[in-house]
Amino acid sequence: DTSSLLAELVKTSGGDVGGLSVKLRGPKGEIPAPLGARISVRTADDKELVNVVSQGTSAIVGEAPPGSYFVTYAGGAGRKARGAKVPVTIAKGRVSEIVVDVTEPGDLAFECASGASPTAPTLPCKATIVGVSGTETPDFGTRHRAGAAKNRITTETGVGEARLAPGTYEVTLSRGPEHTVAKLAATVKDGETTKLRGVIERVVDTTGYLACDFHQHSMLGADAPVGKRDRVIANAAEGLEVAMTTEHNLVADLSGIVGELGLLPYLVHVPGDEVTTDAEVAPFGHLNVFPLVVDDTKPRGGAFSVRGKLAKDVVAEARALPFPVVVQVNHPRSGVTGYFDQLKFDPKKGAGDGAGYTTDFDALEVWNGRNLAQRDKSIDDYLAMLASGRPVTPTGNTDTHGVVGDEPGYPRTLVRAKNDGALESWGPARTQELVSELRAGRNVVLTNGPFLRVTVNGKGPGDLASVPRVSPPGSRSLTAVVHVEAPAWVDVSHLSLRLARGGKGPELALATAKDARGKPAYGCDARLCKGDVSMPFSVTGDDAVVVFARGDRELREVMDGAGDEIRPFAMTSAIFIDADGDGKALGR
Known about the structure:
By secondary structure, this protein is mainly beta. The protein contains 7 helices and 38 strands.
């Protein structure tokens, strides 16, 4: 609270403070001050001087500079102010005691059902609660928890509850961008429980792909406050299917917690290591290596030692392991923590000039969380690597260190898989299939909402497509056939494509796109938007093409924030174009 901060500043500067003790009184009498209850100390012109938050004791206790003020209940713990503001005089060295009237709390109970039947099972999900019609949006506190955090409640069972102040709310139940959302109205009354049941259905057909986040953090990594169980629950609620545990210079495994929580049918956790060199004399940025095996006989679970080593040394150690691993360059354009920035990546060469730079990595994290400037530059770097004949797999990951405002799975990487179901039977063989796809297959879609299936002459991302023989020499015409799907709450407005060697097609507005019969190529019903769009382009030689989708409306249903960072975006990995018929293109 701000009372604690202001009091310390005043005392440090030699000023005076006095104490304040506020007891709460409900319609049925005095009550202990519940944890999280908040009062506001206001000046005569009704401006807040400080707020004080209850620590769950008998009264809400704080300090403020001497003076005459008014106190009102400011919310929290499912109650709101009842009656007029209470005057108080705070004096140096004294504790002023007052009583503030509050309402009885109301309760909201919700269920996320997998179908309309009353017996349909519930699913892990998230509830977003927003006050409407003059009701204040609730604040359940710190953003880094599963369960209740800010105005979200995350539940691994699909059943949850919240204590809310009486009022009117909009409740959105969600489970990631492959599912519908349920938007429900709730009127919460004093001392009563309002029950909601919403249907969340999987409507986007991502058959053959696994939803993955290859870069996440928890309290194990020293710079994130998220508990281990909270991380697992948040992943499951957002519809992720595979999550990497990638702490800084630490190998950890959260799969045991997945089992304890009964989430094996929904989520797989795989141990990894974010090789972190910030403290080194010559840092080379961050690299993720996965999958790994926790070795409790070694420091930090068997993480790679980075002391005095170059990037090529660490990668060589990773390649020497008795099983294949993925080496991913994390946030390559993040300055002191960015591999490309530190080791002087030259887009014209598609490689770096810094000491120890190695091209022996499999994946490039072109989309890291919400940093869009880095994303744009990293996409340019990805295309530059393709143009120079150094293909890698692009990935989109959250690098999440929190929960609300740092939601896991936004973005995510959808990776082609022979078997994208039966997660409860996951084993080492399926982990290695995932590794093989990231290292060699390279068929992925990066997204925070839209899903794309793209083919050129029947070949998809990661594949080699040949130019039709009828194409004349010089400029050769091709068509990318793009199938777009998104749940109705995800706006997809435009498609575009880029070529590795500098070509760029015009942006296509889906609202005006027509099919071969002249009918709208993309449309929506109440649950799903989908369509097939043809995008012509031409090449003058061997090349690679990447398709992008974007939307204009913010994803406020599921993400906290504003602006472009929460607008829909997706991209595919490259389809390689063999223009000269020699069976290869750009290193593929």
